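Need a sequence for this fold. Nothing fancy.
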């Protein structure tokens, strides 16, 4: 284990004492739960950062490092941390976790174990997992991998996020969407197996976009939503399911 992981800290959570922050539940409280609900957050409702630095705290039984995401060393990606907590909190009866206001997550196998601390990289941004709450601008200035720029409506941006977040078949690299502290969104729909280049799109919020005009009669998206300089299909489909790259006022036959 690294020296940084062995380093004592006044932030360490003592064994058998409550973890600092708000308790994380793997599933919501059941309908039959009685009494005043205690402060908590449901895992599915949480916002995860893109990247975390993970540390094993002092104070408690030895932590089985090989069971931590990334085997307890270095950085762990937000998706990995989320999936790890999802499996642990739903499957291990005595495990517990909590999150503080600054986004630091602590998890321990039992109350007697030392805690695994996940410290977020604030500059890396957060995962876009709740698009309706996170994609809020009326339009976005999008830059494609080939350098072309487009003005997308919020609806078009939401469709792109949906595609990028969709799980791929086994063996295909998953896509991703990241919301930066500046409000910009970085996204990729994933690549084919064996591809060496990750195609990344960036989108800056436009709060003064003005009138985007009438929707296309074929696909329902605005004229500027029709991305033409790239073969990426962003859900702009005609009724025959072909890719709609040109705005039209009348439906095509």
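Here you go.
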């Amino acid at each position: 284990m690294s020296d940084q992981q062995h380093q004592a800290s006044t932030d360490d959570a003592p064994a058998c004492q409550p973890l600092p922050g708000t308790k994380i539940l793997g599933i919501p409280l059941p309908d039959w739960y009685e009494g005043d609900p205690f402060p908590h957050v449901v895992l599915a409702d949480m916002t995860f950062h893109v990247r975390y630095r993970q540390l094993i705290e002092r104070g408690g039984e030895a932590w089985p490092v090989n069971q931590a995401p990334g085997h307890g060393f270095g950085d762990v990606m937000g998706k990995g941390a989320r999936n790890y907590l999802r499996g642990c909190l739903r499957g291990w009866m005595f495990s517990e976790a909590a999150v503080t206001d600054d986004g630091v997550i602590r998890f321990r196998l039992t109350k007697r174990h030392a805690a695994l601390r996940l410290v977020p990289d604030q500059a890396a941004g957060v995962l876009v997992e709740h698009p309706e709450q996170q994609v809020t601008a009326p339009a976005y200035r999008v830059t494609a991998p080939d350098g072309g720029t487009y003005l997308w409506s919020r609806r078009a941006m939401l469709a792109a996020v949906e595609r990028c977040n969709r799980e791929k078949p086994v063996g295909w690299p998953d896509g991703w969407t990241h919301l930066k502290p500046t409000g910009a969104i970085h996204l990729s729909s994933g690549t084919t197996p064996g591809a060496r280049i990750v195609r990344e799109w960036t989108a800056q919020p436009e709060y003064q976009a003005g009138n985007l005009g009438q929707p296309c009669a074929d696909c329902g998206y605005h004229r500027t939503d029709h991305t033409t300089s790239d073969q990426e299909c962003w859900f702009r489909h005609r009724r025959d399911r072909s890719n709609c790259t040109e705005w039209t006022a009348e439906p095509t036959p």
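For context: Confidence is low (pLDDT under 50) at residues 1-8.
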